[in-house]
Amino acid sequence: MTDYLEITTRKLDLEEITQLVNLPECGAISVFIGTTRNNMNGKLVKRLEYEAYNNMAIKEMKKICDQIRLKWSDIRNIAIFHRIGEVQVQQSSIIIAISSPHRKDSLEAVDYCINEFKRTVPIWKKEWYDDSTYVWKENCECIHHEKKISTN
């Protein structure tokens, strides 16, 4: 059982990442791919730019892996890769791949993983629009965001 965790500036390679979690005893590899969409709240999006607190991000990603292994004992390998820097429309910013002997565990674990990732991992994005304006965004699920809301 291995965790593959990476914050990178290079394009994410789905085949490479799924091969990391592929094992002969596993009948399932479940994958989540988060991509840049071309719109948000009625505005056309040109690209996203991601920044991360790398050391803390990797620590939080490892915590998520540990939590997954506690909840689903049949999970084998986990890969969580997130891209930072510019990510163009239709390109991947995050790929999560999780293997297990049967599909149910890996499917549930992938869903849990992306939700916890968005909630706890310190990665921020700048959303660039077609009119050359931008907005810094934080995941609304983020625990830091929740704290801001609750203190007002």
Automatic annotation (TrEMBL):
What's the domain of life for this entry? Eukaryota
Q: Which family does it belong to?
A: Belongs to the MoaE family. MOCS2B subfamily.
Protein name listed in UniProt:
Molybdopterin synthase catalytic subunit
Q: What is its main location?
A: cytoplasm
Per its record, what are the GO molecular function terms? Answer: molybdopterin synthase activity
Self-association and partners = Heterotetramer; composed of 2 small (MOCS2A) and 2 large (MOCS2B) subunits.
* Keyword match Cytoplasm: yes
Entry GO terms, CC: molybdopterin synthase complex
Q: What is its EC number?
A: 2.8.1.12
- Function of the protein: Catalytic subunit of the molybdopterin synthase complex, a complex that catalyzes the conversion of precursor Z into molybdopterin. Acts by mediating the incorporation of 2 sulfur atoms from thiocarboxylated MOCS2A into precursor Z to generate a dithiolene group.
- Sorted UniProt keywords: Cytoplasm, Molybdenum cofactor biosynthesis, Transferase
Task: Report the record's Gene Ontology biological process terms.
Answer: Mo-molybdopterin cofactor biosynthetic process
Query: By its UniProt entry, which Pfam families does this protein fall under?
Result: MoaE
Recorded metabolic or biological pathway in which this protein acts? Cofactor biosynthesis; molybdopterin biosynthesis
UniProt cross-references to HAMAP family, sorted A to Z: MOC2B
Q: Which reaction does it catalyse?
A: 2 [molybdopterin-synthase sulfur-carrier protein]-C-terminal-Gly-aminoethanethioate + cyclic pyranopterin phosphate + H2O = molybdopterin + 2 [molybdopterin-synthase sulfur-carrier protein]-C-terminal Gly-Gly + 2 H(+)
What residues does substrate bind to?
H102, R103, K118, K125, K126, E127
> Where in the cell is the protein located?
Cytoplasm
